[in-house]
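Can you give me the bound-state structure? Components:
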Amino acid sequence: MRRILIKVAYDGTDFHGWQLQPGVRTVESELNAAIKALTGEEIAVTGASRTDAGVHSMGNVAVFDTESTIPADRFCPALNTYLPEDVKVTESFEVKPDFHPRKVNCRKTYEYRILCSRVPDPLRRRNTWQIPYALDVGKMQEAAKYLIGEHDFASFCCVRTQAESTVRTVFDIEVTGKDNTAASKEITIRVTGNGFLYNMVRIIAGTLVEVGAGKKEPEWVKEALEKADRTEGGPTAPPQGLVLKEIIYEEK
Amino acid sequence: MRRILIKVAYDGTDFHGWQLQPGVRTVESELNAAIKALTGEEIAVTGASRTDAGVHSMGNVAVFDTESTIPADRFCPALNTYLPEDVKVTESFEVKPDFHPRKVNCRKTYEYRILCSRVPDPLRRRNTWQIPYALDVGKMQEAAKYLIGEHDFASFCCVRTQAESTVRTVFDIEVTGKDNTAASKEITIRVTGNGFLYNMVRIIAGTLVEVGAGKKEPEWVKEALEKADRTEGGPTAPPQGLVLKEIIYEEK
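Here's the bound-state model for the whole set.
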């Protein structure tokens, strides 16, 4: 028996999220079906991040145990022949038999993409939050600084969470703006941390947009954080702007 | 009666191309339906480029005649409220009553996007031609130079065309490569000309890929052009890599 780690990229648009749910199409159900088709084994993968419906991934991680003799690095191309075009394995290798992708120290990086444009852009609708007015990137950068470090992120966590502690460490937040055309600007919020609460990155994005739009001052983010109460944070940004970029583990 | 020009952006994935066809969803049918919903008029728009199924646009152009009193620049936001999310009007203004978008001198720019990557990328599948091996950008640039200028592009034209002359002028072709990750490279072929034959940009892309892959030498493109015979050109690249970037008219 070997434990295989796979890195998984997907376009979340047409999935009901990562996690298995009866009767709907999820990333997990597609992976389990591809592994069964390849090895004949009834296997349920264990994922690192159970992303929501509409959220994308360039580097989610999952592990599974197999009796198959397929070389570890061949799972990547072999599983891809069975997977649909909106989910693909980008890498596969063997890990220690006790490696658990949610119980090992890691750095996770998410990106949230916003397109400020007077008119909607059909070509970017699946991977940006489109906002019909300009945002002040400088103020968003100023506000983002308050979130760096170890904090209780209860104000940035959807009430549905069942996590015991709401303390997390954000290693870095970077807000960058790029002009696409005279009338549009793409803003990317890149967040790296040791783990994230339910909806945390989307609430960070929604909160920074409140500041960028001038509805709140940057200092409001500091106050909202200190109050540790979800009603103090900003709104939850829509899922399609979010992409899980990568997960880096210290040990394998 | 006024003639209104609209610029139109769309994600071509879920359209059977631009042109009206019975029983299927096309960009033209959506535009006509939106104009009818807005003004009550039965109008058929006249488009500049009748793009194929799967081909995208950031700046196609269409005109229509209307008795409506809606200010010309308000057609853009008003039509967008009736249009589906994969097609939007980005600009609208009045033009001379005899302006015809296919009969006036213009510069059209298309981009063709290729992603060279060992593993497929689900997030780029709708707007790139994904090729599982590397291409030599330098050789593609060398080959592209032969296509610049006024030539008979019969070797780069699908036999289905009904155009009388196959002579066109290509003002410029730019082939640029950008490394996205260690294992992937995005190549963009940007072509500007005074008009293009049926499938011409896709055949140019398919031909340059033959050279980039080392199957042919750059000089082969010069020979293929001179023979003016479709069987001498390269294969037609798939539609999803192509986007009509803009059309610039000398007069309005």
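A couple of observations. The longest strand of chain B covers residues 167-181. Chain B touches chain A through 24 residues (CB under 8 Å).
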